[in-house]
Write a structure and sequence with these properties.
It is a single chain. Helices cover 22% and strands 45% of the residues. The protein has 348 residues and is an alpha/beta fold. A hairpin with a 4-residue loop joins strand 1 (73-77) and strand 2 (82-91).
């Protein structure tokens, strides 16, 4: 009898030990899963925090681009989500943004290359715009817009406070029609530009019969105190400042031209395609009323736009090449960034 009791006690102790080991193993396994889950959650939170840093920089830096120097721009955010984001200019229109997110003991790094779009893909920016048979590949932002006679086509958003269709006029907008656009308030300080031209020794175009002539043979920037006629004879990449009107009569392909005119700007060309990039700011009116079609790439900005038969595709190559000498106010109209994510692994 005593032997049977001893054997039963041994088996009982063995069973207790076995179940204890099993329970301990299950507990350790559960704790391990909990720690792994906690690390995964923390890693996800750190990733989101880093991306929040990128979004903060992208929302702020386009408006501060002209103020970015050789020193890094940095912001530390101590409240959740916790991150540190830095940015540094690398090239004309290019900014490298790095953000590090923190959550618990986890950190995540995210880096992007941000390419500046000075006018946020807005091909036409104005106060009052009058379009007749115009095709726009990009956005249109204007306080008032009138569509006259032929149909105009906008492959982008139309932001306007007031819209009118005249007899025979119509439009097709592939993007959003927004009725709460920002009022046009841009005004370039030509007095400051004149002072800068004098201090920096900018050249004047050749003066022929009281009209300045630009043929593309003079290096820029050029400053003209009167009316200018542009008849390019060879591709030209440069900046032209004019105190009066400007007329673009002859274009040469591959040119990249930035024009800032205090007066009106006339776009010539009949059944032509101007290959290259053209940015025009006018303190008066940018107009084209001649018969025939004109196709170009660039951006037109003025209080008044009167265009007929124009096909314009947003392009900013010309203005990006002149960022260092452009008035600051031009870079604060509607700047955005295009982002290239530099992570080797997928974001998720």
């Amino acid at each position: 009898m005593s032997n049977r009791r001893g054997t039963a006690l041994v088996w009982l102790l063995f069973a207790v030990l076995l179940f204890s080991l099993l329970g301990t193993s299950l507990f350790q396994l559960a704790m391990s899963d909990l720690r792994v889950s906690g690390h995964l959650v923390a890693a996800e939170e750190a990733q989101y925090a880093a991306e929040a840093g990128i979004e903060l920089a992208v929302s702020v830096l386009p408006w501060l681009y002209s103020e970015l120097g050789e020193d890094e721009w940095q912001v530390e955010h101590f409240a959740a989500p916790t991150f540190v984001v830095t940015a540094k200019r690398e090239d004309s229109g290019l900014v490298r943004i790095h953000a590090q997110g923190h959550a618990g003991a986890m950190t995540k790094d995210v880096e992007v290359l941000a390419s500046l779009r000075p006018f946020g893909r807005q091909a036409l920016v104005g106060q009052r715009t009058w379009l007749t048979g115009v095709n726009v590949v990009g956005h249109v932002c204007t306080d008032e817009i009138v569509f006259d006679q032929l149909q105009s086509h906008i492959s982008g958003d139309l932001r306007t406070l007031w819209l009118e269709l005249l007899a025979g006029g119509s439009y097709l907008c592939e993007g959003h029609l927004c009725g709460n656009g920002r009022p046009y308030e841009l005004e370039v300080d030509f007095v400051h530009l004149a002072e800068e031209a004098w201090l920096c020794g900018w050249q004047e175009p050749d003066l022929v019969d009281d009209v300045y002539q630009v043929d593309g043979r003079q290096p820029g920037p050029l400053y003209a105190k009167g009316t200018v006629e542009i008849n390019l004879q060879e591709p030209w990449q440069g900046l032209l400042i004019a105190e009066e009107d400007v007329s673009i009569d002859t274009w040469v392909d591959e040119s990249q031209l930035v024009i800032l005119a205090k007066g009106d700007v006339f776009l010539g060309g009949v059944d032509e395609m101007w290959q290259g990039s053209l940015f025009v700011y006018s303190g008066g009116t940018i107009y084209r009323t001649v018969a025939g079609c004109l196709e170009l790439s660039g951006c037109l900005v003025a209080p008044a736009l009167e265009l007929a038969g124009v096909t314009i595709t947003y392009g900013d190559e010309a203005i990006l090449a002149q960022l260092e000498v452009l008035p600051v106010e031009l870079l604060k109209v509607a700047p955005t960034f295009d982002l290239e994510w530099l992570e080797l692994a997928p974001r998720r």
